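Hello again, I could really use a second opinion on something today. For a while now I've been wondering how a particular protein folds. Please have a think about how the structure follows from the sequence. Here's the protein in full, and shout if anything looks odd to you:

***
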Amino acid sequence: MAGSRTFTLLCGLLAATLVRATLSPPAVLSLGPEVIRERLTQELKDHDVINILRQLPLLSSIRQQPAGGIPILGNLVNSVLNYIIWLRVTSANILQLQVHPSADGQELVVQVPLDMVAGLNTPLIKSIVEIHMETEAQAIIRVETRRTGRPKLVLEDCSNNHGSLRISMLRKLSILVSPFANKIRNLLVPTLPKLVKSQLCPIMKASFEDMYADLLHLVRVPVSLSSDHLEFDLLSPIIRSNAIQLNLAAKLLDSQGNVTNWFNKSAVSLTIPTLDGAPFSLTVRQDVVNAVIVALLPPEEFMVLLDYVLPELARRLKSNIKMISEKAANQLQRTQIVKILTQKTPELLLDYGSAKVAQQIVLEVFATSEVRRPFFTLGIEANSEAQFYTKDDQLMLNLNEISSHRIHLMNSGIGLFNPGLLKDITSEILTSVLIPNENGKLRSGIPMSMIKALGFEAASWSLTKDALVITPASS
């Protein structure tokens, strides 16, 4: 009985620990205000917002305005409107959008400044009266949590910012005409905000929905990795300060489209750096980057005729073997073979600004190409410096040298010996043979189509202790 209570207590403690654990996403795409502003501006243009502003029904809206139930005031308004032949927007512009965090930092405020000129034609004046109208639409981007399905970003609470409304005459009018123009101006003061809310706000909402859909499509574009590919998908959106943060799941698929590795939220650490002025950043967790390297560098086995390819290394290898067994060294012929087998999967080791790739390698030496049994089999645990760099919108990786920090004698046909005697020569063989072979497979790079899709030409990179961070290259 006591045993069952202990088991229940341990399960409860484990469950509490898991609840408290911070689960990190496999990748995070952070979009700063610059990207949000530019993409939303483009969507507004694509929705023909300028033409919609030019079609604002100013005159009919003014005529529909109630006169406050005061007959005299209503008669006065009608008498003014009787003198208007037409009143319409003749030019319209959207000035630079502003995106900034709300007071609590949980939402984003989007401000769309509008600059319009309306033309007024009346028989009282020979020329057209031009009215300058400045106002601002304002909306909130927030995360909507649904009862069913995943949370999503929405644009809501769209309205006119009343404090931004300014209506003035472009040209000075005569003393007789000014009172009439001022009456028209006063009629536009309550009308314009209502028109912005009814005519522009639906367009803003539709533009944001299309922008959000485009971002999700961009995120899901497969990343080619030789015959495999990597795919991201949305886990959840978050608004953090002045940025939109898209937490992403990831999966690795083979050439047949079968999922070979799935990444979701886990207790694996992930440090998400601040944008620090960058328009956007893609932060990819270490285990995902490691899976990419594994896909590019699968386990392989190959042999090399060392004396033909690297005669100096063949001579030095013979000298090293002679220290172990002179008889074995004398058996080495020009057709001697070094066989290299990479085992398991490479492991990426990250630190701030630097990276290493750890590999487990089996190395065998055969006296000639005819013999079947090797002199010896060595198990080698080696590290290579991993150098990331970018080429336009491609992320590239190059391995520099290789050092054997552990070497084991797995079996030997020439007697027992200390494998450390061969540490230096095996490191040189691996540097001269294995590293060029692996770099050849890495040469195709990793396409970062997201860079150009977001409007930037080249990528930049940095490393944290647990992630690779991709940002646009500074111009």
About this structure: The first strand starts at residue 27 and ends at 31. Residues 35-218 form a domain with the Bactericidal permeability-increasing protein; domain 1 fold (CATH 3.15.10.10). Confidence is low (pLDDT under 50) at residues 6-20, 67-77.
